[in-house]
Design brief:
Number of strands: 4
Helix content: 10-25%
Radius of gyration: 17 Å
Largest sheet: 4 strands, mixed
Structural class: alpha+beta
Strand content: 15-25%
Length: 169
């Protein structure tokens, strides 16, 4: 579980338990009967936003959800946002999260986890690189194909502390 009083949130590898906000570390033992029922990204603060610090840092953990309810981490990444970006270059608000919404963050997560530019300069027409996600799952000990992952669709989730911090429409 995430420690709300900590200045840094633990990585999913450091989180224990079986709730939806924890992910098992790579190489965890999987039962041969467990099936992948979801794939997506979990967004959390990398560290708690600080007043007067114009940068907000986010950790993005891509995961496979198993039919047992467990989440298995398959890739860990993140991004930073500066208040100058989303306040129209006005003087930054003392609260670095002012002006952000969950809708805005969802798009940022999709930008980060979506298709990349290929070496030939073309961008994939797919929403995600399903082959790469299947390979990441394989490295985490999960046998699943690109087609199976694509059929599940990709979900964006937020930890409770991120949801509590931002308004919803």
């Amino acid at each position: 579980m995430i420690d709300e009083d900590s200045s840094r949130s633990p990585s999913p590898k450091e989180q224990g338990g079986g709730d939806r906000e924890s992910a098992q570390s790579e190489g965890s033992e999987l039962s041969s009967s467990e099936q992948v029922v979801g794939i997506g990204a979990l967004c959390d603060f990398l560290d708690s936003p600080q007043r007067a610090d114009p940068t907000v840092r986010f950790r993005i953990t891509e995961f496979c959800r198993l039919d047992s309810g467990r989440m298995v981490e398959i890739r860990d990444t993140g991004f930073n946002l500066s208040t100058m970006l989303y306040t129209g270059n006005k003087a930054p608000d003392p609260d670095p999260t002012a002006g952000l919404t969950l809708e805005f963050l969802t798009q940022e997560v999709l930008n980060l986890t979506g298709p990349e530019v290929r070496p030939n300069g073309r961008i994939s027409e797919e929403d995600h690189d399903w082959d790469e996600l299947a390979l990441c799952a394989h490295h985490a000990g999960i046998t699943v194909t690109r087609g199976q992952l694509k059929a599940l669709g990709y979900s964006i989730e937020f930890t409770d502390r991120v949801k509590q911090h931002f308004p919803t429409k």
